[in-house]
Write a structure and sequence with these properties.
The complex is a heterodimer of chains A (354) and B (371). Chain A has 354 residues and is mostly helical. Chain A has 16 helices and no strands. Classes of the chains: A mainly alpha (354), B mainly beta (371).
């Protein structure tokens, strides 16, 4: 028996029957339609954008390494910023293709801090120095042997926003000089980059293409239950509040990441915009908050919108304490007001065990 | 309230012809195995439910949130459901008739801790209690003819939780969680700095301590137990992570044998997926495999209980209830959304055709009862 069971979906007959149950018996907006719109309008485009950004950065890296110069370095740094911003639109949806393994899910190979809030910057630096000093080929075998703590966005940030010498200068001239005196660094950069492209594309494909489990994950999310028996809206809600908890507890109350690039607050702002888009959609399309209002939970819906706005404001002001408070409130909304208003049963035991 | 995600579970089970929900108190009178558990989401719906593999359901309203169950050793279908802490009562049910036949009450100043067991002769019922001010552990004893309290034994620790008998029928094994909580502060732990958890063997007749075990895992609250036919006790822990001071993966399971040092099971990387939490333990004496559930990790891990190594896992949303049916060689798993799954106790493969989905909200523990 594997360590991650992949029980097939229930029989087709059950799916069809349950599919009928998902249609709202009352007049008004259907919950399944809102979920479908939110996935199709927010999650899928964000996942694809992230994959495309990884390819775009890879192109910049290839050009830079062919002829390292200041403009090329700026191009690579800008591409990393875009890629990391796009990642933070995807990161809240830690399910399906991102959460594909019990022990080493893909999300860790993109954002290593996600596991338990550990900052692996020094781990990346040490491995890089070892690789630059060594003579072993920096080939696919080498990069596949690297643990999640040494790859992903953090590794790329270390590679393009500081030099590899003691002191870790962030001066572009020093970084450029580093690449000129250590040609293996470009091979290292290209290898880590290629790995991230592969991971990002696997996530994108996992949402859109059947990966052997019977349906693309996008379609699995529109079934009554996922293979492990979870209702998709529950999986999604838990994923969102766990990400907010991670952002608050591990980052805002722990260690701020993306300090080499100075991008922490823009990352949070992007994450909030994604969450905002998912929950509230737009003027033409109803989101979950609209559904709360439609069901008469006007005060609760207003509270969620207020807390989203407070979080946006705190991120814009780069106020660490205020942001932690606002994100904590949003996390609470996802645990209480939103599921309670929408009749989403998150489970008794996981939240209230003994 | 109208749900925008209205999976009408009652209509579903009826429509599938898999389960029939009988009104509270109706008799099922169907011989065979029953999966029995506390269930419900609020005072109005809290009940004891017995569900059969054929889909029939017997429900007995309790008026309180139940937790663990004790099964009478001789009278088929007679079970006691203990209130979840800090409740003050238990419900005695005749599942065969689908009716309550008695209640047990906490002596004054004590609170139920959720678990208990019948004596081997069925004449006594033992349950874990705690002083409502100090959390000092007590094993309550009730007569089973009148359901009156008859004795109190020390549990030799704070916050006792699960209690079972060893196969000798004379020795109680009690997991003292070591946590100080009070009714007025709910489930807040008030002694994280000083918590001391243990598993204690107690002579049921004299109340004397026979043996005690502690495991060298920081801030591990030992709470749930499985006992094999040869007297091996498997204990599952819940880590109070906020008091640990680091994020390393910590062991959650250990095997205990009288007169021997505890054997703490490995803490492989996969254990991180349990999120510091074991919600239930079940052991198969036949296959020498222990199952441990984690509703926080949506996962059951299976262990070789002699080697202490992980043999496999089963992902299942909000799984907590675990029971073992040695007659069919099956671990039975339940989730709060009403689902039941069967896993072979040797191959650890799921019988997917045996999945059932009931219109109930199973609480933490599942018990197998044969009518």
């Amino acid at each position: 028996m594997s360590l991650l069971n992949s029980a097939p979906l229930a029989s087709l007959g059950v799916i069809v029957f349950l599919g009928g149950c998902l249609e709202d018996a009352t007049s008004g907006t259907s919950g399944i339609e809102v979920l479908e719109d939110s996935i199709d309008n927010t999650v899928l485009p964000d996942v694809s954008t992230f994959a495309a950004s990884s390819v775009a950065m890879q192109t910049e890296v290839t050009a830079f390494c062919a002829s390292p110069d200041a403009d090329g370095l700026t191009g690579v740094q800008d591409a990393w910023k875009t890629l990391a911003l796009d990642w933070h639109s995807v990161a809240p949806y830690n399910l399906g293709p991102l959460d594909n393994d019990l022990i080493l899910p893909r999300i860790l190979f993109i954002e290593s801090m996600r596991q338990r809030g550990t900052d692996y910057t020094d781990t990346v630096r040490e491995e890089l120095q070892r690789a630059l000093a060594g003579e072993n080929p920096l080939d696919t075998t080498f990069f596949e042997s690297l643990t999640f703590t040494k790859v992903g966005l953090l590794a790329l940030e270390v590679l393009v926003f500081e030099d590899s010498r003691d002191g870790h200068s962030s001066d572009p001239a020093d970084i450029l000089g580093d690449y000129e005196v250590a040609p293996r660094k470009c091979a290292y950069l290209a290898g880590v980059m290629a790995q991230l492209v592969t991971t990002a594309q696997a996530v994108d494909e996992g949402w859109r293409v059947d990966d052997g489990t019977g349906l693309p994950f996008r379609d699995q999310m529109l079934q009554p239950t996922l293979p492990d028996g979870t209702e998709p809206i529950v999986e999604l809600t838990v994923s969102l509040f766990e990400h907010l908890d991670y952002t608050k507890t591990r980052k805002l109350e722990g260690i701020l990441d993306a300090q080499l690039s100075g991008q922490f607050y823009p990352h949070v702002a992007t994450m909030l915009r994604s969450l905002d888009g998912f929950l509230d959609q737009n003027a033409e399309t109803a989101g979950l908050i609209d559904l709360m209002e439609e069901r008469g939970f006007l005060a609760e819906a207003a509270e969620v919108r207020d807390n989203l706005q407070s979080a946006h404001d705190a991120a814009a002001a780069e106020s660490r304490d205020d942001l932690a408070v606002a994100i904590g409130r949003l996390e609470g909304n996802l645990k209480r007001e939103i599921p309670d208003s929408l009749g989403i049963f998150l489970g008794i035991n996981f939240s209230d065990g003994d | 309230m109208t749900s925008p995600f209205p999976i009408d579970r009652r209509r579903l089970v009826m429509g599938l012809g898999m389960a029939t929900l009988l009104p509270s108190g109706c008799a099922s009178r169907i011989p065979g195995p029953q999966w029995v558990s506390a269930q419900g989401a609020d005072d109005a719906s809290f009940s004891l439910v017995g569900a059969s593999p054929d889909g029939s359901v017997t429900e007995v309203s309790s008026g309180f949130r139940g937790h663990g169950l004790a099964v009478h050793p001789f009278v088929p279908g007679h079970v006691v459901m203990f209130a979840r802490r800090p409740g003050v009562e238990g419900l005695v049910v005749d599942l065969g008739r689908g009716k309550p036949i008695g209640r047990i009450r906490c002596p004054s100043g004590l609170r139920m801790q959720g678990h208990g067991a019948f004596s081997a002769d069925g004449a006594r019922l033992y349950g874990t209690l705690a002083d409502e001010e100090t959390a000092e552990g007590v094993v309550g004893v009730w007569r089973t003819d009148t359901w009156d309290p008859i004795d109190e034994l020390p549990s030799y620790g704070l916050g006792p939780h699960e209690l079972r008998f060893l196969p000798d029928g004379q020795t109680l094994v009690v997991a003292n969680g070591g946590l100080l909580t009070r009714p007025e502060t709910g489930r807040e732990v008030l002694n994280l700095d000083t918590m001391d958890s243990s598993v204690v063997l107690i002579d049921a007749a004299s109340g004397k301590r026979v043996d005690a075990f502690r495991i060298p895992v920081p801030k591990a609250s030992l709470r749930h137990l499985g006992v094999t036919d040869d007297g091996t006790v498997v204990v599952g822990a819940q880590i109070q992570r906020e008091a640990v001071g680091h994020e390393d993966v910590l062991p959650l399971v250990a095997a205990l044998r009288a007169g021997e040092a505890p054997v703490v099971f490995d803490a492989p990387a996969v254990l991180a997926a349990m999120v510091d939490y074991v919600g239930s333990v079940a052991v198969s004496s036949r296959s020498r495999i222990a199952a441990t559930s984690s509703p926080r990790g949506n996962l059951v891990l299976f262990w070789d209980l002699d080697r202490g190594t992980v043999l496999g896992s089963h992902a299942f949303n909000d799984v907590s209830g675990l029971a073992v049916d040695e007659s069919t060689g099956t671990f039975v798993l339940s989730s709060s959304s009403g689902q039941v799954r069967n896993i072979d106790t040797t191959s650890l493969e799921e019988d997917e055709g045996a999945r059932r989905d009931f219109d109930v909200r199973w609480d933490n523990h599942l018990t197998l009862v044969t009518l």
